[in-house]
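Table 4 source record.
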Amino acid sequence: MTEVAATGRRLSREELRVRRALGEQAAEAGHGLRALVVAHLAAARAAWPDTRGSAGSALAAVEQAVDAFAEGYERAQRLAVRREEAARREFIDDLLHGRSGLGRLAERADRFGLRLSRAHAVAVAEGPAAYAEGGSVARRVEAAVVARFDSRSFLITTKNGRLLCVAPGDEDEILTHFAQQAYAATDGVRVVIGRPQPGPGGVVQSYEEALTALEMAARLGLSEPVLRAADLLVYPVLARDRQAMADLVQHTLGPLASARGGAGPLLDTLTAYFDSGCVAAEAARRLSLSVRALTYRLERIHKLTDANPADPADRYMLQTAVIGARLLGWPDRPL
């Protein structure tokens, strides 16, 4: 300090390099930047030169030293953050795809607040636009959930443009709150909550179940923004034997294709009728039709298919065929 103040020279490149290296070491050791800057200034005051007129040069040297030290400190922090993000992403990929040994996966999970010996469930939110890791919507949803629950017991992340929450299976309120926040944060979002599944592989099972339910909900055009996979289990069962379902649709609803305008309008009529609990007035409202027009369509369906939608004996077959048609994309896609 005395020499720099006396000569007025700036710190050398080597002196600045040493300051940066010390900054990196301090960051890696976990020291706080504020305390380190205070220590630097205290050391500068203790070594302050008595030479008159040297204050400007001394302050310039202090400024250089502190700036170089802080630069090294921040660089070490950025590297640490990137390493942590990479480790977190690798863990999430392994967790959701089961690519790592279950024992090793459970060990790594503790670092991120998950105890895989417990049952876990996964909620998956899918919006009209992809969710970005660290994006504003993801941060807002996570902040809202963290503000209410212990952040060490759940994990919020993104995968393939979807927003996910992994939580203990016996803490359903976390997943419900996540679903509510995701719905509030994004227009047109649909959230499915998977069933709790036990053990280290339970997260994968719940995640895949939620994805399947999301696909089913999209095919069926379900309007509810928040769904539970447990309530949709009948649909994977129905879709499991595709050929049998296609035969049912063709046999039951195939004659509708001969109607004026094709099968589409009549299939929409059956969908609205069954979704409204077979209440004609409500179905007509959903279709923007008069009750008389709806009744005419139902009569036309009865005549073409020889199955009466209002008859309990025929209703189950027709409703199952309608669900099958929606799952298979008929009549837009050939059976």
